[in-house]
Amino acid sequence: MNTETKKAILAVSFGTSHEDTRKVTIDAIEDSMRQAFPEYPVYRAWTSKMIIRKLKNRDNIIVPTVKEAMEQMAADGITDVLVQPTHVINGIENDRMKEDALSFRDSFHSISFGDPLLTTEDDSHKVIAAIAREFSHITKDQALVFMGHGTTHFANSIYAALDYTFKDKGYHNFFLGTVEAYPSMESLKKMVKAYRPKEVVLAPFMIVAGDHAKNDMAGDDPESWYSQFKDEGYEVKTVLKGLGEYEGIRSLFIDHIRAIDR
User: Fold this and answer.
1) What integer is the mean pLDDT of 227-233?
2) Gene3D superfamilies in the record, alphabetically (predicted)?
3) Burial of 92 (0-12, 13-18, 19+ CB in 10 A)
4) Architecture of domain 121-242 in CATH?
5) Domain spanning 7-118+246-260, CATH architecture
6) N or C end of the chain, less CB within 10 A?
7) Domain spans of the chain, in order of start
């Protein structure tokens, strides 16, 4: 019986079909993991089957699913797996990812899961600090409006909680809404209007600046957030920078791996 321990990290992301943002977000997060844990191999898996299919058909790039990555790690003789999602919240994708990984529990000595970005109250404070550093140039005349994804999962309440925490920390001109849930654009419009900024700055509250950021947020479509805020009479700027580009966000993911690396 071989008792040698071989640990590896599995970085699990939703994925993106946009190479420009992937390089500076998902790739950058995985590079940070390699730098922080040079002794562990870092494997990649994505949870969006649709994006995996699209990359294969369009670019002939193969990205493994969680199950495929777990199979590969078992074949490579890995004994202990540290799974670190780059998901923003403990939502549906994260639940599914855990299920897929745990279906291999008999193939490994241990499988541990790091927390998604926003899990504890401490995470929220660190994320706000990272955002405040990134947007230190925002003036009182500007409203910084983040577009989160949103989910039907009960974990969605974290978005409203984070918006509240921005204000509690003194960032009264920082707002967080979602594309698919609450707080919605309707709520955002009311809150931003009450603040009365001269200019609205839009930024994605997502790991990558992909389809949602480029189309739903910054696009020219009349339904985009850019167009809707313009229609409200504001000057509008868009920042196409995913959370994975922020150094403070990447280091929080590293902290989450350290917490499970025993």
Assistant:
1) 97
2) 3.40.50.1400
3) middle
4) 3-Layer(aba) Sandwich (3.40)
5) 3-Layer(aba) Sandwich (3.40)
6) N
7) 7-118+246-260, 121-242
Whether 101 contacts 71, CB under 8 Å: no
CA distances from 81 to 84, 186, 197, 221 (A): 9, 43, 48, 44
* Residue 1 scores a pLDDT above 50: no
Task: Quote the CA–CA distance of 140 and 133 in Å, as a whole number.
Answer: 16
Q: Read off the pLDDT of residues 174-191 as tens digits, 9 standing for 90 and up.
A: 999 999 988 999 999 999
- Residue 38: CB atoms within 10 A of its CB come to 8
The structure tokens 């390699």 sit at: 34
Q: Determine if the pTM surpasses 0.90.
A: yes
Q: Which residues are catalytic?
A: 149
121-242 shares the fold of 7-118+246-260? yes
Cβ-based neighbour number of residue 58 at 10 Å: 9
Question: End-to-end CA distance of the chain, in Å?
Answer: 22
Query: pLDDT (tens digit, 9 = 90+) per residue, 213-223?
Result: 999 999 999 99
